[in-house]
Amino acid sequence: AKAEPAPTLEDAIDSRMGPFTPTLLALIDAGGMTDVAVYKRANIDRKLFSKIRSNPGYRPSKPTAVALAVALRLSLPQTQDLLSRAGYTLSRAQKADIIVEYFISRGNYNIHEINEALFAFDQPLLGA
Predict the structure, then answer these.
(1) Among 90, 63, 75, 72, CA closest to 25
(2) Which residues, including other chains, have CB under 8 Å from residue 26's CB and lie 6 or more apart?
(3) Which residue in 20, 74, 97, 117 has the most C-beta neighbors within 10 A?
(4) Helix spans in the chain (H)
(5) The pLDDT value given to residue 56
(6) Residue 128's pLDDT band (boundaries 50, 70, 90)?
(7) Interior CA angle at 106 toward 25 and 61, to 5°?
(8) Sorting pLDDT into bands at 50, 70 and 90, what band is 16?
(9) How buried is 4 (Cβ within 10 angstroms: 0-12 exposed, 13-18 middle, 19+ buried)?
(10) Are 38 and 68 within 8 A, CB to CB?
């Protein structure tokens, strides 16, 4: 039997995760939500959402990406997956990330309550 050739760097790059925007749009569709409901729940403005929607390679800021995950009511693993597609992660070393994780793990997706907690601990707020 012939050995399989080792994957090349190009193979590794080609097999990377899909980008943020197509994944976000698929999650919106899968959740049966409207764009308006999502960006309002994420506390981001229509112009920013439109920019994300129209550019498949758009890379949002981490607070925007987290706000969208909250708006979609994603579980922690789903949130980590969506964030990783924009190059981010929720880290146990970041106070803001621990606060977000606390709310998501308890099924509390109220962006205003999350932002109140972030504000109380002097952390950057979600959304725009």
Answers:
(1) 72
(2) none
(3) 20
(4) 9-14, 20-30, 35-41, 46-54, 62-71, 76-84, 95-105, 111-120
(5) 86
(6) low
(7) 40
(8) low
(9) exposed
(10) yes
